[in-house]
Write a structure and sequence with these properties.
The protein has about 350 residues and is α/β, with parallel strands linked by helices. The protein is built from 14 helices and twelve strands. Helix 11 runs antiparallel to helix 12. The mean pLDDT is about 95.
Length: about 350
């Protein structure tokens, strides 16, 4: 197979973790006799600094021409601390999602057995937790128009808009994911208050009878937030709209014990994008201490969901599990053991893949 990737390291720790992801990608391609080519491109704060645009046209074209996109992180303290900035890194992320048609964000939450003790929840609650969050990415409050402030600046407004087509598209994907897992789907909404949520529930109730092999349940978002903490093992596939998904997936991310362990996939119309969920962590940038495993696990999702290469994905996941079993981990996972650097962890995982029979 010839694999052509767009590589967008982005800001903060993005370039450091991307280097390790590419080491692993090269090791996998060598192991399975794939031909790899890739082009790097600017996105986020570094793109603003370079060309004044957080998502330049050249970057967009490189993404369109690729089989898949590997993305590091967006965000800079310089912009976070300037609420008056008219051009912001996050605008590039939203534009990238919209123009590439990245409509569904998949975030698997998996608790590795030898790291369950690091979860802020009791180990008996999180042990064996394994579920997939499916978040709609291109509609809802973040993209609704009109949006703005009144002339006197004392009133601000955002609008939440969804179409039936948008809801059907992501629910159909969620049903298929549930079919490949434990055959349970939970729709999270606020249908007792919001008109958009009532549309989501209406469409789900139309689709559920067409998927009789899937157990479908409906849950208000406030209850779902509570259930994620009380009993995360009850979930299999959890699907929801953009804003709720943004909040719930960040809540769910701490269940594993570190945000540095959770990858994601954004499934698109034109191409798909794969990234860790943890953000740019600018305080750690350049220190070679960031956990690269979420970025490496995002490569596993690229092979599975972007290229339909499940053997390659499984080998990467086994290598990551082996690194944790061998205690070759960064400071967020090390506890009282030795903390390895970002590059040492990446080297170890790539070497394990190369040596595995």
């Amino acid at each position: 197979m010839k694999l052509n990737l767009a590589v967008l390291p982005g800001d903060g720790i993005g370039p450091e973790i991307m280097r390790e992801a590419l080491k692993v990608t090269k090791a996998i391609c060598k192991k399975f006799n794939h031909s790899l080519s890739y082009k790097e491109a600017l996105v986020g704060a570094c793109a603003i600094d370079a060309v004044g645009d957080p998502y330049p046209a050249e970057t967009h074209q490189i993404c369109l021409d690729s089989d898949a996109v590997l993305f590091g992180a967006i965000g800079s303290l310089k912009f976070d601390n300037d609420p008056q900035a008219k051009v912001r890194p996050e605008q590039g992320l939203l534009r990238m999602r919209k123009t590439l048609g990245l409509y569904a964000n998949l975030r698997p939450v998996t608790v590795f057995p030898n790291r369950a003790h690091l979860s802020p929840l009791r180990e008996e609650l999180v042990k064996d937790a394994d579920f997939m969050c499916v978040r709609e990415l291109t509609g809802g409050l973040y993209f609704g128009r009109p949006q703005g402030r009144s002339e006197d600046g004392n009133t601000a407004y955002d609008t939440c808009i969804y179409t039936r087509e948008e809801v059907e598209r992501i629910l159909n994907l969620a049903f298929e994911l549930a079919r490949s897992r434990r055959k349970k789907l939970t729709l999270v909404d606020k249908a007792n208050v919001l008109a958009t949520s009532r549309l989501w529930r209406e469409v789900a109730q139309e689709l559920a009878p067409r998927n009789p092999d899937i157990e479908t349940e409906y849950m208000f978002v406030d209850n779902a937030a509570m259930q994620l903490i009380q009993n995360p093992r009850r979930f299999d596939v959890l699907v929801t709209e953009n804003l709720f998904g943004d909040i719930l997936t960040d809540e769910a991310s701490v269940i594993s014990g570190s945000m540095g362990l959770l990858p994601s996939a954004s499934i698109g119309v034109h191409t798909s994008l794969f990234e860790p969920i943890h953000g740019s962590y600018p305080q750690a940038a350049g220190k070679n201490i960031a956990n690269p495993l979420a970025m490496i696990l995002s490569v596993a999702m690229l092979f599975e969901y972007g290229l339909d290469k499940k053997d390659e994905a499984e080998l990467i996941r086994r290598a990551v599990a082996a690194s944790m079993e061998a205690k070759v981990v960064t400071e967020d996972l090390a506890g009282t053991d030795r903390a390895y650097s970002t590059s040492e962890v990446g080297d170890w995982v790539a070497a394990w893949i190369e040596e595995e029979e």
